[in-house]
Structures are given as structure tokens and as C-alpha cells.
Amino acid sequence: MSEEDPKRPEVEADKLDLEGQSEDSSDEGGASGDTEMDFLRSLFSRTLGLSPGEKVLDELTLDGVARYIKSGKCKSIICMVGAGISTSAGIPDFRSPGTGLYANLQKYNLPHPEAIFQIDYFKKHPEPFFALARELYPGQFKPTVCHYFMKLLKDKGLLQRCYSQNIDTLERVAGLEGGDLIEAHGTFHTSHCVSFLCRKEFSMDWMKDKIFSEDIPKCDTCGNLVKPDIVFFGENLPARFFTSVQADFPHCDLLIIMGTSLQVQPFASLVSKVTNSCPRLLINMEKTGQSEFGMGLFGFGGGMDFDSDKAYRDVAHISSCDDGCMALAGLLGWKAELEEMVKLEHGLIDSKDSKKKEKEAKQSSESTGVDTGK
Predict the structure, then answer these.
(1) N or C: which end of the chain has fewer CB within 10 A?
(2) Could you tell me which residues come within 8 angstroms of residue 227 by beta carbon, excluding any fewer than 6 positions away?
(3) What's the alpha-carbon Rg for the chain, to the nearest Å?
(4) How far apart are CA 240 and CA 181, in angstroms?
(5) pLDDT tens-digit profile of 50-95?
(6) pTM for the complete prediction?
(7) Which residues contact residue 76 at a Cβ distance below 8 angstroms, ignoring those fewer than 6 apart?
(8) Annotated catalytic, 346?
(9) Among the options 185, 192, 251, 346, which is catalytic?
């Protein structure tokens, strides 16, 4: 998402008279350098609107975040989540060496791993994507502790929105509804004909039947391919993503980022859309999303800053997403509630799956009896 460049304000009165300095002024050393750096920080901050905001957290730790939430000052939390929140459900992420999705696609004979999610390649060779879809299809996995932590935030009236890169629909299974959720990279929930002249919509059940019968889904109106409404490389993100970002992020009191490498744009840029005073918590297996060198050098910028002497709002909790959410729930006094929610919801899913399998087995038995004349 592009933004217009801000107009440059007048800065003549703030210019340093560097030309008038003597070459012998080197004895001022570090003091002179500090003055020049302070000037540059001030100049860039005013010009680009990047001056540091108010420090809200009393400590840049998970405890500090918990105290902020408990203070009552934090009323609107946005979660940004990626594939890392679903790995404990058995769904591989994309980039982990050895175990990630991209590292295990050799069997599909792709020109490169990302091709399986490129729209031009899909239109010519849809078979690899639908073979992968059979392995990863929504409905075969249970939401994780992290998913239910976000549901708990919703129940507490604290979740403004969840922005997800995931297409596994586990946020929905956990109880987040359409209004709670921005599926930035689309969803399996609906599918459409790829023809711009047709664009007929198909249901999730229709697509599931096609995928598991190993048929390549074709439109019954025009004969073109039908694709789940997930965003492939080469396609635009949903319009709702952009309109919601503009409405949500200026009002965010806490941004929680979980299970994402923050390498895919424009999703990764969302960390810079909150105000300069908004705390940002990363729960991930490694630090990510940090400022580029040039911006970090001046002590500002939209990227995450965990370690510099200018850090004032960003917290990195290095752990699995489930462990991090459970730790935060414990600090908030919600641990027992979260554990009970996970136990209850998983039990309901198991019960539903069991009844479904019994029904399918009964139907299969009845069908076999009819076929054999019994």
C-alpha cells in the first residue's frame, strides 16, 4: 500500500553552520558528533513524522506487557499472526529449514517452491496445488492454544481485530467470526472461477468434495478452473484488508505479533501502522521485523527495535506461540480459564468428528448392503 510522501517543512532556522567550523575543531571530538547526530535525528523526525512516542510500558518484558493490559489503559488489541501459530496443530510453516512447507515440495517437481502458490503457474499446472490442498485441507486440524488465547481476548472485550496470513481457517474454528478477522491472504471458506468473465462462487463443501475426489475443480458454467479464495503470488490482497488497516491501526493500544517471519509484504509493513506510542509484543521462535540499518542508526523507524539504547516499546518473547500465550495468560490470571477453554473446545471437536465418522461408516455400510443385494 503506497502512501504519498509528506511535504518537507521549512528547516532553514535549524541548519548547522557546518561550513563555518574550523578544521582545528577536532578536539571537540564526540561532543560535536553527538550534536550533529542529534540534529539529524531531530530533522528526520520532524520531516518524516517519525519522532519516538511516549513510553507506555514500565518494563520491556512480558511482565511489563501484562501489567499494561491489567492497568485498564489497554482497551484495543490487534493481533498479527502467521503460520507459526498453527505448527503445533500439525500444519507446517513455510520457511523453517527441513520442516517447512517449501523444504518438502520436491515430489511436485516444481521449478521453485514458491511456484505452487503463483497464479500463472497454477493456471497452467493446477495439479500440485490441489495435491497439497488434500494434505493441508481445513477441517483436519484443531486450533492451538494461541488461537484460543485470541478468542479469550475477544471474550474479555480486548480484541479489536486479528490480521492473519493463514489460510487454514483455524481462527474461525476457535470462535473468531468474520468481523473479528482479516484474512489477509484469503481463505478456503469460499472459492471462485478464475475467469474474469464468470467469477462464479462455490462453497467450501463443494471444493472439499472436488479436492478429495482428486478431481481438478472446474466451473460448471464456463469450464474454467475454480480456485479457493486464497491470495496467490501475483494477486491483489482483499480490498477489506486495506480499508480495515486504515480504520483499525490508529486506534490500537497494543499490537501482538505471533508466528510470522514478517518477510511478506504488504502484511509485514503493518507493524509500522500503529502510533509511535503503541507497544508491540512479538511472540516468536526468533526475533524478526527489526529496523533496517539506516533507520535504526537514527533511533527511529517503523521496524521493531528490541535491543538498541533507543528501544522504548518493543518486546520480544522468544518461545513457541503456545508457550508464549500461556505464559502471558498466566501473568494476567487467565491460565486456568485458557486451559479449560482448550480442553472443552478440543473435546467438542473430537466428539463431532467421532459422530461424523460413525455416520459415514453407517452410510457406507448401508450403501454396500444395497450394492450386494442384502
Answers:
(1) C
(2) 122, 126, 191, 192, 194, 217
(3) 25
(4) 10
(5) 556 789 999 999 999 999 999 999 999 999 999 899 989 888 666 5
(6) 0.75
(7) 158, 160, 251, 252, 253, 254
(8) no
(9) 185
